[in-house]
């Protein structure tokens, strides 16, 4: 379905590392007190065979947050990389925050390949996820692509707080209203597609490229940073978690070099002014689903 459930797992950061990263503004806390690095490596749309090296390069560069999903088809590669890094002493499991998501890719399909929607209410799914917390299988749970109305339904029954809502966020879709609502409920936001997903398979000739936007490039020149670094910093300075995707070693390293500057409030507003309802990941194939999240304003 168009609504994806997020199932977030992590081991607690070791105390000394937690204190240092928090002091440097590199982590934020969920409402349950668990700490999460604000910059993570996204793994969506990575080619088969690329992810093991990408994760190794990311952790070596300093990343401690890896965002995954069953749908991406590369979790075994991510796991192999993490196991190797732990074995060779590069990192311990306690230093890593791993997010996994389960969504509509597991739904059955008819003879034409069309998904057969489940009649299980996502509120029931949430209650089952709460059992995972009680059983110690995960420490934090959240959602992805949920709108205000869907969040309110879960909040009415939730015994375990919604830790995070992972949504598409970038200057063409800054999501100010949804972010404001989530923050008012103690729900953190993870911004996916922060660079506008320029390599998305469904991109059409003539589609705007966020990293080529004149205002983004002007800010890149002003701060002596790349457009990608400006777009990543934009999310962090708004108090969000951000998960840029790359399998390229130099880009992975470049994307992590965003700790030595901050955008001014005026420049944050400038980027927000690029808003054009430019949703890239519309999941339009599921628009007939009763819980499709993008029909509402937010």
From TrEMBL:
This protein's source sits in the domain of life called Eukaryota
Q: What's a Gene Ontology MF term here?
A: oxidoreductase activity
Q: Which PROSITE patterns match?
A: ALDOKETO_REDUCTASE_1, ALDOKETO_REDUCTASE_2, ALDOKETO_REDUCTASE_3
Q: Where is this site: Lowers pKa of active site Tyr?
A: 101
Q: InterPro entries, alphabetically?
A: AKR (IPR020471), Aldo/ket_reductase_CS (IPR018170), NAD(P)_OxRdtase_dom_sf (IPR036812), NADP_OxRdtase_dom (IPR023210)
Q: Where is the active site?
A: 72 (proton donor)
The positions making up the signal sequence are: none
| Domain (NADP-dependent oxidoreductase) ranges | 39-102, 119-274
Descriptive protein name? NADP-dependent oxidoreductase domain-containing protein
Species in which this protein is naturally found: Cherax quadricarinatus
